[in-house]
Amino acid sequence: MNLSTRQLRAFIALADERHFTRAARRCHLTQPAFSALIRGIEEEAGVRLFHRSTRHVELTPEGQVLDASARRLLADFDLVAEDLQDYAAKRRGHVAVAALPSLAAGWLPAILADFRSRHPGIAMQLRDALLDACLDMVQQGTVDFAVAARRADMTGLDSQFLQADRYHLVCPQDHPLARARRLRLQDVLDHPMIQLARSSSVRQVLEQAAGAPLPAPVLEVEHLATVTGLVQAGLGVSVVPAMTLFHFRRPGLAIRPLGGKGLARPLYLVKRRGRTLSVAAQALYDELLRRRAELEAAA
Amino acid sequence: MNLSTRQLRAFIALADERHFTRAARRCHLTQPAFSALIRGIEEEAGVRLFHRSTRHVELTPEGQVLDASARRLLADFDLVAEDLQDYAAKRRGHVAVAALPSLAAGWLPAILADFRSRHPGIAMQLRDALLDACLDMVQQGTVDFAVAARRADMTGLDSQFLQADRYHLVCPQDHPLARARRLRLQDVLDHPMIQLARSSSVRQVLEQAAGAPLPAPVLEVEHLATVTGLVQAGLGVSVVPAMTLFHFRRPGLAIRPLGGKGLARPLYLVKRRGRTLSVAAQALYDELLRRRAELEAAA
DNA sequence: CACACTTACGATATTCGTAAGGATT
DNA sequence: AATCCTTACGAATATCGTAAGTGTG
């Protein structure tokens, strides 16, 4: 047996109105078309559901059986439909994003806040993690997508280039390098350097860009905040991508862009290959892509 | 939003099979037609519900939302549809009939037993009552219809002639009337008579048929069984319709048909005007009409 | 290259609205 | 006579199946 929600709605309209012409109006149909719709239900069910005399319309006993259930049935259906359209309209939903710590702290907050205010019904989850952890979470499906760099093993992943995060020198204001007009990585390598651990994408991309192994750093630490302190104390200089510069906008420190091609950390939106994002996740994905220019401005 | 159960079934089939061609087969459709059906749901919902690559079909997050509810929705619907078709197919239902005591005892039992055995799911109710009570129950809607005679006030009632219940003389075997070849009511009126109360249809119809008021009876009683006893004891004779004769088929009693036009109690199926009977009630109504010939045979 | 989904397209069914028919009050 | 449901019918729309197109393993 096959019925449409239109037919159910028509049935209920007629059961309410007990009048074909009025019920037809309620369904935005002409009366004959409406009549045919009702006839269709009766044929489908194999029972007469309404008794019509020219002056009165009323439910037959079998019509009453259907009437008792039809409203609940349709209400149930509408609830599901509404639910579905809530997801479609981004009134409800869920997004989980993984992001490199620098992005999670620098670029994303404003965008997420904006997204949240436009879609308050969408639950968001932000996992700030180092590169490998970010990509692992994508592969495992823990998050919908990641904002991160790439690595050697990208099997099963689909990356969309976002923006190049260009590297900058950070050093004390009175450091000789702070006075140079055009700086290249080679100019910096002679000076004592503070570096992040090899597990960080900042360090990995830098080494890859340099072509050769970098000279051993003076100190190698885990967190950027530590780098800030060490540079400020004059222990050395460091080279970090633009997205991390907010750590270094402090009195006594100078920030200088580094020239030279390839001296940038390419950032990507990374999702699982072949997986469709939820409407909510896709919306955030698109939004990040749309606002990728702000990655430079944030620097 | 408007969906049909066919679309819901198609959705579930595809969610199960994750394969258009197989799901299409399950729905008895060609694959392209099935594809269009699914596309229709997605357009209606405004969301993509399945992710298709040429090699894999899987639910999108929104598809999963629908999947969670679709099965329950359809199961609910099928339950209601099945219920409705049970009524249509007379596997379920309810009939309430009122009948004159003579009919309730003589004619109906065999028919009801037969009806019950053919439709064991239909609940039956039989109210045996005198004429007025029978018709009142019909008017009040307490019963679906009645098997009875008519009365003066038949407003709002719709009667369908069933069979004439012809009157017979009952008397002791050795009574002079028992030897007569052709009997007419006039021949009987000279002898002492036992009568039922005026409230009975048996008595009412008889008086009406006689044209003039009947001579005062020797005795006037409530129940036919009492009449039997009195006639058997030789206190008088009586005139009763064929349907009651089973009371009088006893040793020592004679039964003789009475000639004369109009000497019959016309029996009707009486239902409320304009009211449609339930499928079950209509089925019994039709059956009674069909087997009206047996009313004579039963006599 | 074989499998699987989509697109294209002509044929068939369904559905719609207008207009006429029939029944009841 | 007025109201209201049904029937009739041509037009617009939807749906179906066949056949060709496209992309993936």
Q: What's the count of strands of chain A?
A: 11
Gyration radius over CA of chain A:
32 Å
Any low-confidence stretches of chain A, pLDDT <50, length ≥5?
none
SS content category of chain A: alpha/beta
**Assembly category:** homodimer
Order of helices and strands of chain A: HHHEEHEHHEHEEHEHEHEEEHH
Percentage of residues in strands of chain A:
15-25%
The rounded distance between the terminal residues' Cα atoms of chain A is 64 Å
Brief rundown of the structure:
2 copies of one chain form a homodimer. With 299 residues, chain A is of the alpha/beta class.
Secondary structure elements and pairings:
The structure is a homodimer.
Chain A: H1 5-17, H2 20-26, H3 31-45, E1 50-52, E2 57-59, H4 61-88, E3 93-99, H5 101-106, H6 108-118, E4 122-128, H7 131-140, E5 145-148, E6 157-172, H8 185-189, E7 194-196, H9 201-210, E8 219-221, H10 224-232, E9 238-241, E10 253-257, E11 264-272, H11 279-290, H12 294-298
Parallel strand pairs in A: 3-4, 3-5, 7-8
Antiparallel strand pairs in A: 1-2, 5-11, 6-9, 6-10, 6-11
Chain A binds a DNA duplex (25 and 25 nucleotides) through helix 3.
